[in-house]
Task: structure prediction
Amino acid sequence: MTMNSSGGRRKPPTIHDVAREAGVSRGTVSRVLNGGHYVSPAAHEAVNAAIRKTGYVVNRHARSLITGRSDSVGFLLTEPQERFFEDPNFNVLLRGCTQALAAHDIPLLLMLAGTEGERRRITRYITAGHVDGVLLVSSHSGDPIAEQLRAADVPLVACGKPIGLGSRVSYVAADDRDGAREMVRHLLSLGRRRVGVVTGPLDTPGGVERLAGYREVLAEAGMEADERLVVSGDYSRVSGELGAERLLAQAPDMDAVFVASDLMAQGVLTALERAGRRVPQDVAVGGFDDSPAALATRPELTTIRQPWDRISSEMVRVLLAQIGGEEAAAVILPTELVKREST
Amino acid sequence: MTMNSSGGRRKPPTIHDVAREAGVSRGTVSRVLNGGHYVSPAAHEAVNAAIRKTGYVVNRHARSLITGRSDSVGFLLTEPQERFFEDPNFNVLLRGCTQALAAHDIPLLLMLAGTEGERRRITRYITAGHVDGVLLVSSHSGDPIAEQLRAADVPLVACGKPIGLGSRVSYVAADDRDGAREMVRHLLSLGRRRVGVVTGPLDTPGGVERLAGYREVLAEAGMEADERLVVSGDYSRVSGELGAERLLAQAPDMDAVFVASDLMAQGVLTALERAGRRVPQDVAVGGFDDSPAALATRPELTTIRQPWDRISSEMVRVLLAQIGGEEAAAVILPTELVKREST
DNA sequence: ACACCGTGTGTGCACGCTCCCAATCATCCG
DNA sequence: CGGATGATTGGGAGCGTGCACACACGGTGT
Result:
């Protein structure tokens, strides 16, 4: 590991230097670098020794220039800023993706497409081939950028099922519907009979599917649908607060609420406390996500855990496969009920 | 904007295609791309038209190969994972940096150096020149990676004053000490006389400086130091909870606490509630950060706002200046007291 | 008339790498 | 033993760009 330790920045060693040091040709070094096929053990050894000695690191720009690949992927966020801040899931997802990519030595480029101008700039950047593929986080439907990328044949994996795009886009999602079903079944199993719901935005898959799961279970239990028990939020804390107030006004006899996100559930708890309802005695509250917020509430929140670690690793796996030429694919992962104090 | 709209991926246009289309040489196109000096208005116009017509986008790999720059920067996180999740400041910082860089058309590469192996891999990646500079988020002292990068002459800007590295490293920080002073003065102005503190880790600048500010103000007010009023946390919620319990045990007459982060303040509120102390009537609580957590608590938290948007834009500004050849610099930005319900 | 300047333009070269093809050599088959 | 096969190696070509240089041109000063 004799590095170039004298101060200052001098030119880094090239494949040429390694070849000279090892007494072989550039071609042989390149072959060692790319899998080592058709290289004699002796040459292989010599090249590796030379790499260690010179401290050589491949110049990715030169490589990309010839291969046409960039060996990097973009992590694209088209959400409005606020969600990015408030939603702890993004953190977990971002970290998971970064790590999964790091295992393949692929850097992650973070891209935020908030405004229209940024959207255009980023589309241009991506379609110019500066990244090999895109991990897309954009739950809202009709996202124009996804459509453009798909049209440009850019390998793409969405987090959550994209509504709106009829065409084949890969995605990885938790089983929202089944998670909702499990939570509502749990609430019913506690003897609750007037179960309300605060949904997510109904132009997001999470919003639609979790509501569907709620309705299914109630129907299966033979309970008739009561629209006074259904309100919509936007996943934000305050919208949970407002939603709970509306529910209490419309259906004062409510004895449980299924809230489609932990953050909204925080708001629901606030509103219930203000209204003098005890949780879980008077009203049981179930969240969704198992975000850190679920532990920050009092009482701690019963919730549905989404397997974010697996979601991120699957997103990366599917994306890399697609970059490698495979077809688009959909992956749906199971959720898990986490019982705490609020039910 | 006649793009290559037929499906499938074909070779993107090169500078050569643009030159042919515009009826000029590659050199002229290159000059237009890089500032447009020494180019006649007619040629300038023709080139721009040709760029629009062909949908040309510069190939950054080819450019990087010749210039030696990568036109990208790394955002390096050496914190252990947990902090990354829990601390909402990272989000704001990350977003701010990404946007500030986007204004210069510079992509941000997210790098997580949690384990020793990752640390080595990333150091290698960076020192190989794959990024032009690094935005470093690592409050703990004695971070070996910072030392290595500095030794390799990699442009570097830290978030928060790095302790430990004696050498000149650029950094941008909020005025921790002054913010702490302001909060403690505020608590004293409310008539509180037994003011406790839950510090951050004392190997971080935030931990040290905020404690120093606390001590200074108490000394200036002529109050004698009482070590029973001082405990340390690690910025996590639970450490705030434990810290408050210790304070209550050591100094039951405490009538105010300055907590060095909002997250820990959340824990402090939990512990105070459990102990039957009313906030702010019995004990006033002041946080630090003005993170979203400050609004999630009941009562809402009085806190010190750190100017994260300015911190991130300054970090980018200083880094780009340094990449451009300027000297290392330190920037300290003022904080602001945000009064809410907890004091 | 000459040299000189600054502006504007075209062209060869190099950046570091992968790919491809030809050359070499040992081995094997008929 | 001739030729075919396969493993291994070397080296040329070229990826798309910026840079250095040479050159053309019109105007200015001598």
Summary: The two ends of chain A are 59 Å apart (CA to CA). Chain A has three domains: 15-58, 73-174+309-333, 176-305.
